[in-house]
Design a protein that fits this description.
371 residues; alpha/beta; seven-stranded mixed sheet; four-stranded antiparallel sheet; 14 helices
């Protein structure tokens, strides 16, 4: 495992000098706690890709896999749901938000939201949207917090609030309850706004709540969803799920315009089918969540280590001495969340093992004993 220090919230290893050939060698046994994006593809996903690879299929989403995927997603989100596979999470968010805004529209979101912090300005520069950010203590918006920016619809000098975007699970690893999301949706709809849910870790949230994904999406009023697959065992691919078809128009054209239309879409759709047709999505998420809880429990009683947020999904946020984190990063990959404040983020994945967790927790304890 190799040390990693990057800007807060990021999932990239930017800023490092070019690696030598020796450092490029891939150790298949190496796992860390930097990001669930670091994990490989689940073997069942790879098997589905191998099966989909045989013969020819019609391109650009006219294949059998993408056609069947509509039925798979409707099994989770109801018969009105429409799914549009895309390449990545930023693409899903940009396409989804464009679908429910006008050119003069604005999106209210938490100041920690991925669309604000970690997408290189894509919603604003590519999507042409204005983001109206609100500070939150736990990454979750409430009707009261929304009202800090939900104003000025008739003011031509101000971008018009048209969408509320929430993240489930949040960037802090916290999870909205269905009632909390219903309150957000009811409040937004009363003010003429739509609700977008960034579900990069939607499976982890459902596993944490022990409810179907529909319980905190279409059932409570979410209009459009960015559905994450890569963080939960897929090789690549996300999806935009339209939960209220009346809220959007020309989605096929918008996806193409946004450079998110895959020519060989069967390879994205086949992965989602393998993930969602049975229970792989839930098995993966439950395991990752359990490993995060195990890690939090393993470090919670170490003097000088503070676990900062409830560990509900697959991430642990902790504060510990800066020099301890630097020492640990020589052997374990993880990121600083707020380096100035000593806050780090440890992420667990579908392939994180109990041994991984216990070894890391023991290393933290050992480094803290040296202080």
């Amino acid at each position: 495992m190799t040390a990693t220090t990057t800007p807060a919230g990021g999932d990239t290893a930017g800023g490092h000098p070019p690696r030598t050939d020796a450092k490029r060698r891939h150790d298949p046994a190496a796992r860390g706690f930097a990001s669930d994006n670091y994990a490989g593809a689940h073997p069942e996903i790879l098997a589905a890709l191998a099966l989909a690879n045989g013969g020819h299929q019609v391109s650009y989403g006219e294949d059998d896999y993408t056609d069947h995927l509509q039925h798979v997603f409707r099994g989770h989100f109801g018969m009105d749901a429409e799914v549009y596979p895309v390449f990545n999470g930023t693409g899903a968010n940009v396409v989804a938000l464009q679908a429910v805004t006008d050119r003069w529209g604005a999106v209210i979101c938490a100041d920690t939201a991925h669309i604000h912090v970690d997408e290189c300005g894509a919603p604003e520069r590519v999507g042409g949207l204005k983001l109206l950010t609100v500070p939150t203590p736990d990454g979750k918006l409430t009707p009261e917090l929304i009202d800090r920016e939900a104003r000025g619809w008739d003011d031509e000098h101000r971008a018009m609030p048209q969408v509320v975007s929430i993240t489930q699970a949040t960037e802090y690893g916290t999870v909205y309850t269905p009632d909390e999301i219903r309150a957000v949706c009811d409040h937004a709809h009363r003010r003429g706004m739509r609700v977008h849910l960034d579900g990069a870790r939607i499976a982890n949230a459902a596993a944490a709540l022990d409810v179907p994904m529909r319980a905190f999406t279409n059932v409570v009023g979410v209009d459009i969803l960015s559905f994450g697959g890569t963080k939960n065992g897929m090789l690549l691919g996300e999806a935009v799920v339209v939960l209220d078809p009346g809220a959007v128009r020309a989605m096929k054209h918008l996806r193409k315009l946004s450079m998110q239309l895959a020519s060989k879409m069967r390879f994205v759709s086949a992965q989602f089918e393998a993930l969602l047709a049975k229970d792989l999505w839930l098995r993966n998420a439950r395991h990752a969540n359990a490993m995060a809880r195990r890690l939090a429990d393993g470090v919670r009683d170490i003097d000088g280590v503070d676990v900062l947020h409830p560990v509900q999904a697959n991430g642990v946020f902790a504060r510990l001495p800066h020099h301890v984190s630097l020492a640990l990063q020589k052997d374990f990959r993880f990121y600083f969340w707020d380096e100035a404040d000593g806050v780090v983020r440890w992420m667990c994945s579908f392939d994180t093992t109990e041994e991984d967790v216990d070894t890391f927790a023991a290393a933290i304890a050992e480094e803290m004993r040296k202080t």
